[in-house]
Amino acid sequence: MRKPQFGEINLGAMAGVVVGGICGLFAVGIAPAIIYRDPAALFHTRILSLICWLISGLAGWVLGGQIGPRLGVRFRSEKVEIAAGAFGGLVPVLLIALWGWYMVTH
After folding, report:
1. Which domain range does residue 80 map to?
2. If you write DSSP's letter for every residue of 75-88 in order, what string do you get?
3. Which residue from 15, 18, 21, 36 is spatially nearest to 100, judged by alpha carbons?
4. For 64-89, how does the pLDDT look when each residue is reduced to its tens digit (9 = 90+)?
């Protein structure tokens, strides 16, 4: 099994940073937009959204770069590597969205 180095450039890392960065930009505003039924609430916390974009992009790079190649080698497929990297990018986004939901409801 291939063990990628920390921060190595590969397809999983690229998929993780794309998914983590784009979704992380809106992760903190999803809960207020749903609860208040106001799509403009996605953009009420611009600075916090920028911080979440950076955090989820970097975490998506690291997680996608570690998960993607391992599963890509196991299943012998680049498509699996990209999908696993995208899933790795979704992990920090989901954690930030859950944190945002907790902050709005409590």
Report:
1. 11-105
2. HT-HHHHHHHHHHH
3. 36
4. 999 999 999 999 999 999 999 999 99
Domain for residue 49, yes or no? yes
Q: Which two tokens stand for residue 86?
A: 């995208």
**On the CB side of 42, how many CA atoms lie within 13 Å of its CA?**
9
DSSP states of the chain: ---PPTT---HHHHHHHHHHHHHHHHHHHHHHHHHTT-GGGGGS-HHHHHHHHHHHHHHHHHHHHHHHHHHHHHHT-HHHHHHHHHHHHHHHHHHHHHHHHHHHH-
Based on the structure, what is the number of domains in the chain?
Answer: 1
